[in-house]
Amino acid sequence: MRGLKLLRYIIITLCCFVTIPGIAQNTESITIKHSPGTSTKNDVTTFLRDNSRQVHFVHKGINVYCDKAVYYPKEKFIEAYSKSPSRVRMIQGDTITMSADYVEYSTKTELAFAKGNVILTEPQSTLTTEKLHFDRLKQQAYYDVTGKVVRDTSGTITSQIGRYYMNTKKYQFVQDVVLVNPEYTLNTERLDFFTESGHAYIFGPSTIVSETDKIYCERGFYDTNEDFGYFERKAKIYYDNREIEGDSIYFDRKINFASATNNFKMTDTINKTVARGHYAEVWKAKDSLFITNRALVVTAQEEDSIYMHSDRFVVTGPPEHRITKSYYNAKIYKSDLAGKADSIHVDHKTGLAQMINLARFSNNDAFAIKRKPVLWNLGNQMTGDTIHLISNVETEKLDSLKVFNNAFLVSKDTLSEDGYNQVKGKFLVGLFRDNELYNVDIIKNAEVIYYNRNGKGELVGINKSKSGSINIQISNNNIDEIRLIQKVDGELSPESLFPKNTSRLKGFDWRGEERPNSVEDLFKDDPPLVLKKIKGLKDYVPPEDFFDEDLKERIKSAENKENTKAENKAARNLPKAKSDSNSKKEKPKLGQPLPSKKKTSGN
């Protein structure tokens, strides 16, 4: 009995190192490491496991474990089966493991096919699918029956078609691609994903949706580890009833920050505002916006829109109390109103717009004088050190204005060549009705020069007076009445006796040529526009098909040379080609163009 046991032990030990019949030096040979049960019939060898261990065979560094293996020596082809709950396992080195219910492998083509609960694991991710092709020579895996990749820090990625490049640790996903992360969900048609870095490259119409925002682009990059990305081609971000657009958008989810370069546009539906420029920064948590490079803010009103332009804009505050600051060469245009100042501060809640003088230059500096606040309403020009314009936030119409220090009101006398009606004083308070100035009070040290005409438009005389204060009544852009309060002196002189050298009050400065008469005029003083060159993300380059000519040649060479009618086992699980126009629409292979109803950029 002891002799029989010893003999049995020797046989089992030898079986652990059996080379499948063939030339031992042949690189196509498979080495059996363990197989307690072996039988051969019709030149086909079957290997079975025992109660303690699975069948174990090796080919070129790939270890395969299974419950049953069937080897076809003429084709150099092996089939591996499993029994529940065990699995067929293919292990390459210490990094790649594939398990499935069934695996077949050709040593001639070095192509493996797995099906049934297939799981491919590498250090950074796990792929699950129902069918998987693995090319050992190219170190690539491919599926076309829906697959799911799980990466702890990035989330879960599903697609109809996928390909894994083991050398570069890269996945390529095609068709109905969905990346689900605890913070957001990405939907796209093509996605290149690197498992080590967590970098994702997006191609074609794509969206990234979270609870608080939505991103759209047709070309993009996203770092799933650090939660930031770049987006191009029709790139947009939506949040809190705002839409942000730009040729190139950078987005950092961790700090709720976005910046846009070239052709920036933000549409705010709550405040009925559109902001434009060629560079902008948006801080969502702070509810703030910075714009420069041809910056423009448009506020829509029922009857008209107000356009504001300056070198820079800063918009802060929540929708219910928004503040807009425009500074350096700020301008306003409206059909019945225009203005200029060094800077303009608007409180949208109160309707107060403050036109502020340039404080960093002296009053005698030519540059400072040029940027001194000026406001035009129809034919009237108002200037001063500071101007406050107040609107009714409910009716969205002008209510009143205040001019502080060196207030000056000028209107051109329409019937004379160079005559100007002028009123000046320390302060000015004006009232509007239907956006037209109808009442003006000049307070303290008031002076006036007024061309007095009768009902026929004939000049009666020119009134030049001084007074403590002056009240002016205006209608249809004409002065109806001037009231001198606490009159000091003055007289009405015929035009022939009125001295030309006294026809201008001190500080007179008619600036009509500076008035913007259109939206385009807001930019006439700007330097030529030079857009920043955007390097941009690289276009999608379709890879060679997984089943390329090289692999097809390898599969063809695996045919049974002795019996050409015999099945080529290495080819039996290749994807079926489209047979005719009545067959079902073939799924696009990875690296081949996707069918599309319309052509889109970024593909």
From TrEMBL:
Residues 557-570, 577-589 have a biased composition (Basic and acidic residues). Residues 30-189 form the Organic solvent tolerance-like N-terminal domain. The keyword Signal applies. This is Organic solvent tolerance-like N-terminal domain-containing protein. It comes from Winogradskyella immobilis. Keywords: Signal. Pfam families: OstA_2. Residues 557-603 are annotated as: Disordered. The lineage of its organism: Bacteria, Pseudomonadati, Bacteroidota, Flavobacteriia, Flavobacteriales. It comes from the Bacteria. Residues 1-24 form the signal peptide.
